[in-house]
Amino acid sequence: MHDALPQAMLARLFREARTHNAIGGDVEDDTLRALYDLVKFGPTEANSCPARFVFVRSPEAKARLAPALSDGNRDKTLAAPVTVIVGHDLAFYDKLPVLFPHTDARSWFAGSDEARLERVGLRGSSMQAAYLILAARALGLDCGPMSGFDNAMVDEAFFKGTAIRSNILVNLGHGDPAQLFPRSPRLPFDEAARIE
Length: 196
Fold this sequence. Notes:
Distance between the termini: 26 Å
Low-confidence stretches: none
Order of helices and strands: HEHEHHEHHHEHEH
Structural class: alpha+beta
CATH architecture: 3-Layer(aba) Sandwich
C-alpha cells in the first residue's frame, strides 16, 4: 500500500469529480451496501463510527424529507434516485465495547455532557460523510452533498425517539455534466497550508 494510485483514479476521486446539482439514473440496493462496506473502514476517533445512514429512496420517505429541504435543494433532491441522510449517534459510545474492544473506551464518553458527545459525533460523522463521497465516486456514482435543510425537521421525521441527529445530506446517482457550473477556484498550497 505504498504506491500512489494511478493518475486516472486520482482524477476520478478528486481532480475531475464535481458536486452535481442534477442527478438521475438508478442506484441498486447492492450498490448501497457496497458503498457502506467501503465507508465503514474509514478511521474515526477511537473507532467510534458515530455516523448513521438513512438511504432515502421510496416516494414515502422522499415525501417525509421534502418539507425539511430549502427551496434551492428541494427539486434536485426529490429528483435524485437516493438521498443519504448522514446523522451522528450521540450514544455512539454504546458500540465501543464491540468497536474498540481492547480497552474500556465506553467509559471515556459515557456520562459526558451532550456538548462533548455532539462534538465527537459531529466530527466523526463529518469524516464518514467525506468517506461516503469518495467511496461513491470510486463506485462510479456522482454526489451532491448539501447542508441546506432544517435539521430539526429531519430529526423529527427520521430519528424521532433516538439519540441520532442529522448532519448532512448527499444525493447519489448519475450526474448530468451539462448541468454543472464552472468549477470554483481552490486555494493554492501557500494560502491554505504550511510546512514547519
